[in-house]
TrEMBL record:
One of its GO terms (biological process) is nucleocytoplasmic transport. GO terms for molecular function: GTPase activator activity. CDD domains: RanBD_RanBP1. PROSITE patterns: RANBD1. Residues 142-170 are annotated as: Disordered. GO terms for cellular component: cytoplasm; nuclear pore. It comes from Rhizopus delemar. Residues 20-154 form the RanBD1 domain. This is RanBD1 domain-containing protein. SUPFAM superfamilies: PH domain-like. It comes from the Eukaryota.
Amino acid sequence: MSDTEEKKIVEQQEEEADVHFEPIIKLEEVEVKTNEEDEDVLFKMRAKLFRFDSNEWKERGTGDVRLMQHKQTKKIRLLMRRDKTLKVCANHYVESYMTLQPNVGSDRSWVWKVTADVSDGTPEAQTLAIRFANSDNANQFKEKFDEAKKNNEGLKKDEKKEEEKEEKKD
């Protein structure tokens, strides 16, 4: 076969392969609510999250850990979603009892206990660990976490004062 005959056969095959189908169902754009619309991001950094389960550490996911402050209540929560699926792997308020402790043998990870993490839908107590790319990032996270803790603690004190004022009025 000559080169021109081969080119004609290839061109015929390409013409036959140019098929176009109209979609059967037209998809409409749906607005997705993440419950993050009323919050400001105070801190965001890539990390890997683990949880302690049955005497071993299990990976929870890799993604951006964020400290989010609600625009009205000013409460700060920790939220982390997995990279590709965007599934929530950590979701809890930063409370005054939480203390970040260095993970044994690593200067770039922290461990803390949570009484009510709602990443799986229902609140449950967990021990979490988070690991960053380097120790500088880990220290930045600790600073912001401690600031969030102080902020939320101050809000609780303000709420108690308001409650006491209301009780005195009654």
